[in-house]
Amino acid sequence: MANDDTYANLTQLGGKTELPNSPEEAVLERVPNPQAGADYAVRFTAPEFTSLCPMTGQPDFAHIVLDFVPGDWLVESKSLKLFLGSFRNHGAFHEDCTVSIGKRLVELLEPKWLRVGGYWYPRGGIPIDIFYQTGEQPSTVWIPDQGVPTYRGRG
């Protein structure tokens, strides 16, 4: 059980927090994993992720699925929501957005394993799916398929 000081360092939970202007400005926060001795999977899904094309400034849309096996830390979910939302006005290619999300979380959480699937909607007629993973999927944890089908268009 957490003591009163466990969450004292959190700056965003429980109060009004403005959306950061960029991923670099976003503050990702972590909390102790109360089940640190057990291997289990955590999944976050952001089906309405947006960023901007760095060439045209037009919006790009993706369905982001984040799976990880935590070690000592969990990501505080409000800070993750604000971090992902900070890409809304950020110009970057699909690959950069997807891999940057994974690397930033690895740096913060030091998970036993992490995978990010970036399922990007077509822009210029071509859907681009980006996948980032820290290593082999652990055999001791059930991690379901991300469940996002390959883009099939409207036909």
From TrEMBL:
This enzyme's EC code(s): 1.7.1.13
InterPro entries, sorted: GTP-CH-I_C/QueF (IPR043133), NADPH_dep_7-cyano-7-deazaG_red (IPR050084), QueF (IPR029500), QueF_type1 (IPR016856)
UniProt entry tagged with the keyword Cytoplasm: yes
Biased composition (Polar residues): 1-14
Region (Disordered): 1-23
Reaction(s) the record says it catalyses: 7-aminomethyl-7-carbaguanine + 2 NADP(+) = 7-cyano-7-carbaguanine + 2 NADPH + 3 H(+)
Pathway: tRNA modification; tRNA-queuosine biosynthesis
Catalytic residues, chain numbering: C53 (thioimide intermediate), D60 (proton donor)
Localization (cell): Cytoplasm
Gene3D superfamilies per UniProt: 3.30.1130.10
Broad class of the protein's primary localization: cytoplasm
Positions bound to substrate: V75, E76, S77, H94, E95
Keywords: Cytoplasm, NADP, Oxidoreductase, Queuosine biosynthesis
Protein family: Belongs to the GTP cyclohydrolase I family. QueF type 1 subfamily.
Biological function: Catalyzes the NADPH-dependent reduction of 7-cyano-7-deazaguanine (preQ0) to 7-aminomethyl-7-deazaguanine (preQ1).
PANTHER family: NADPH-DEPENDENT 7-CYANO-7-DEAZAGUANINE REDUCTASE (PTHR34354:SF1)
Protein name: NADPH-dependent 7-cyano-7-deazaguanine reductase
Protein source organism: Parasedimentitalea denitrificans
Record gene name: queF
